[in-house]
Amino acid sequence: MKQINRKMLATTLTLALVVPLAVACTKGDKSDDKKERVLRIANSMGYGGDDEYFRQQFTEIFEFANPNIKIELVPTMDEKYRYGNIQPGEKMPDPMEKLKEVMQSDNPPDVVMVGYEQLPDMIESNLLTQLDPQITKDKFDTSGIVPAVIDGIKNAGGGKLYALAPTFTSSALIYNKKMFTDAGADFPKDGMTWDEIFDLSKRLVKGEGENRINGFSFSTQSQGDNLFYGMQMYTAPLQLKMFDDAGEKMTVDTDQWEKVWAKMAQLQKDNVFPELMDPNKPMNRKFDQDNPFSYDDFMSNRLAMGIINYGQLQQITNANKSAANYKGYTPIDWDVVTIPSHPEAKGVGGSIYMNGIMGINAKAQNPEDAWKFIKFINGEDWAKLKSHSSYNLVARSKYLKPKDGLEFHMEAFYNVVPAPMENNMKIYRENPNIYQVQEIGRQQFSSVLQGKITAREGLKQWQTQGDAMLKQMKENPGQPIQPTMMQAVPAG
């Protein structure tokens, strides 16, 4: 009986939230709300017509508020490929190419959802309708949309808006206040450069062996051998590329790449980053069965500063509340500031993901309802309803507030601009083995960190081996890379 009552209460609460939203969003609408219409939506992610997650996330509330408008999801992926059911030698269709195809068909979708890295291509191909005229006409307020979203989308459109995104996830720099106080160092601030953060982190390095405190990490969780992947947050705003746009030639044997690798190797030598894991040694303190947070350097008081995703804050918050239940855990006094940036890319962060980037197809059959839908899910009322999430952030700053009575610098997660994204997902889809090219880079970088080779030597070897692998992929697409090709140049 109690379970039934709980379900009834949940339903009542949901309706209590949705009904005012429906009223607010239909009030004053002079369009013919009795006429039944169809709004077709397609995306580049392959969501099908019966995709429950997509409907729960984006369309159910709109359909409740607009019962005369039927949402029809247009699939862009054959069902047989949905779960990776690919036969040997078979090429998986590109959902992005399929999306472009259906957008220009005889029965095109009205609204399209794409990834941020795909947005420039859609705009350059003249496939999307510019939204600025509608925004001006309807006096739709975009001033409350956070820079991380509005500026990022404007940058993709050359200063114009061709899409909007209702939610996003972002990262910030978290720091342990006590460690700074003990070291007599000032707390980090918004808008610092990477070099300023690295210099500051050197002052926080303390102790040896098991008691060592490191100054900074690109992740709060033990990165082990993953500095190579973590530092992509550093290289993304610099637009350093692994290979050219055609995926045929490596682009790493350069002075700029050398500067980055040499800097990271020196910081590793200065103990700024957590120690490298030695595969020949037994598991250490980072995998202590008595400490449920041993894998997290920040929560285990081994790290002064680290990059953290907004969704991870919940874990620290819960641990602090229940510290008495965790043996050896001490509540951490923390706060966050914006991710550092480069002087040549001031304010540009490297870890922002927009969820639900949607625009209107230039060939939409129902552009009026398409704009109505986009305006709906990017409006104030929708943001207010969705702001209770612990993992996604709504794009309207008015509803971005710390939860559970916490006080921290929430603005750090949204007062940044996303780094330009490489539009090379097609290369990865067409050449699944291209990740092996990246793995060669990781191996060479590891040798650099261990002092076996110089940064330039590692990059030259990565360039040579990578070129050989890319050549083989072009000549034999979809075929496994031969080991002899991967070992074209000794690892040093």
UniProtKB/TrEMBL annotation:
InterPro entries: Bact_solute-bd_prot1 (IPR050490), SBP (IPR006059). Its main location: other. It holds the Pfam family SBP_bac_1. The keyword Transport applies. Coiled coil: none annotated. Transmembrane segments: none annotated. The keyword NADP does not apply. It is found in: Cell envelope. Residues 1-24 form the signal peptide. Keywords: Signal, Transport. Belongs to the bacterial solute-binding protein 1 family. PANTHER family: ARABINOSE-BINDING PROTEIN-RELATED (PTHR43649), SN-GLYCEROL-3-PHOSPHATE-BINDING PERIPLASMIC PROTEIN UGPB (PTHR43649:SF31). This is Extracellular solute-binding protein.
